[in-house]
Amino acid sequence: MIKSKKLSKYKIVSHGFFDSKGGKSKGIYKSLNCGIGSSDYQKNVKQNLRIVCQKLSLNYEKLFLLNQVHSSKFHFLNENYKKNNKKLIGDALITNQKKLIIGVLTADCVPILIYDNKLKIISAIHAGWKGAYKGIIKKVIKFLLKNGSESKNLVAAIGPCISQNSYEIKKDFKNKFLNQSKKNEIFFKKNKNKTYFGLNKYVYYQLKSLGLKKIDIINKDTYNPKNNFFSARRAIHKKENDYGRNISIIMIN
């Protein structure tokens, strides 16, 4: 488990970015696979989610996850939220409720945890390139600002994700981003006739442009097996038929 130095300053918040170690799953899911949507044994995944909560002394029954679809849709869980077996569809959660654990699952995409240190509101965002491109980050921050947050009070932690050196892309991918804005050129680099995309740089720039100043970047490449994270791209390159998911969680104590 990795913690953000900036978020760790606030004792009222519990959080963690988890890697693939310390769980019950076997084979390609070894071992802390938290992907309910994966083809792993559900019993193992649920045990893994319990282990994650236990690591931070949190109540597993209060863990809230989404059915993630690489969208720009988010959900605000207020005092009227009800936890049932039907998962909400979207890619970000926001809550002002104490003891409610919100989290996102990733396997190369960017997990972002946000805390408003004045209003005591938290958010967990799943930002793959599609979600980031569609504006999931902007939508969450705009919602917070519209509901009383000030950008100077927002603390954001960008968690482990695929690094630029591991993220080779094709020409049409780059063109898509340049059509959105010519300024996006700065997130691409060329090396030996190959083009690479800096996803966490793109995410950082979006947060910065929305006025956030307290931003942590945890520079851990999920694609590199030495770092012990699940990686969708690495699984594809190894011709594996599925992959585990890393979890990132946050809660107001």
Task: Tell me what you see in this structure.
The protein has a single domain, classed as CNF1/YfiH-like putative cysteine hydrolases (4-Layer Sandwich), CATH 3.60.140.10. It contains 7 helices and 13 strands. It has a 6-stranded mixed β-sheet. The longest helix has 14 residues. The protein is globular. The mean pLDDT is 97.
Q: In the CATH hierarchy, what is the architecture at level 2?
A: 4-Layer Sandwich
Quick one: overall form?
Answer: globular
**Poorly predicted spans:** none
Terminal CA distance reads 19 Å
CATH homologous superfamily annotation: CNF1/YfiH-like putative cysteine hydrolases
Write a brief structural summary.
The protein has 253 residues and is of the alpha+beta class.
